[in-house]
Design brief:
- It is built from 10 helices and 11 strands.
- The strands form 3 sheets. The protein has a 5-stranded antiparallel sheet, with helices on one face. A 4-stranded antiparallel sheet has the order 9-10-8-11.
- A hairpin with a 4-residue loop joins strand 5 and strand 6.
- Helix 2 packs across helix 3.
- It binds a DNA duplex (20 and 20 nucleotides) through helix 3.
- This is WYL domain-containing protein.
Length: 311
Amino acid sequence: MKKIERMNAIIYILKEKGKLTAKEIAKLLDVSERTIYRDIDALSQIKVPLITYEGHQGGYEIDPNYFIPSIKLTEAEITNFIILLTLGKELKVPGVHRDYEALRLKLLNAITQDGSPKLNRFLDKFKVYINRINPGDYVEHIMETIIKSLEEEKKVKLTYYTPLKDTLTEREVSPYRFTFDEGGWYLIGYCHLREDKRTFRLDRIKSIELLHSNCYFPIDMVSFENESKSKSSYHLQIDRSFYEIIKHNDYMEDNKIIEDSEFFTVEICTDYEDSIIELALKNPTSVKVLEPQSICEHLKKIVKDLSQIYT
DNA sequence: GGTTATTGATACGGGCGCCA
DNA sequence: TGGCGCCCGTATCAATAACC
């Protein structure tokens, strides 16, 4: 076993087994105690946080928080990580957006010198467009606080901006879920001020503080876990060739052709009602809403309002 | 084959805990 | 409090392996 391999092995052994004497480590690695002393010395020189206990019942320990960078990534894996990092930046994942450059450089630093420019050329040509909403800045440490609150099941205290009333309110929240939806990040939880479930857009949280008190959810909110957006059924008449274009879109995930003639008559089950309306408005010659009637009426009203404005 | 690095064996000093 | 055992720290020397 090479010295560097043995040094790694000592770290792993101490991480796994806790405190051991040089004699015990030597026995495990089948080398002399003296060799272990030299390895321990070498580890100390490279700032591995070893704890030494001298005397009776002495030995060596390693700081339990010491992180072992044991994963050697291939260039392909690094590329994938940087793509994910870029997605994280474009999705404005709190923290990732802020630390993007430092993280990107760390990953680039892990690949060969000739691999780095190649990857940069690719990244220059890699673009992600998230155009649903464009969230503002997040308050500092929002991500860390949310992660901690969800991990430890502790309440948070928020200062939340409500644009409709142009007001700031302070409220205690028991966080339940952290989600990304239609271009924005949201914290869902039980609001103790409103005594109800609320969804908080992250960029409207103006301050956040982790509280010591445990989360509380009323019994009738236990169904939180199984909650899902209610899906509705829509019947659309769609041009056959246009169907081929849109059939893999999100809102088409749960669709079936119920009549196959000059046009397809398609039943779609989705919670993306806005997308159905937008689809019908943008493509009147290719898409016609048949059901529900409420959507047809809604479309008529939009068209009527538009025709009055743009006479 | 010479040089350098690594390893093993041995010895000694000193810290620490236990115990009479 | 001092002896004892256990262990870490350091030094030295010789043997061996790796490298040029």
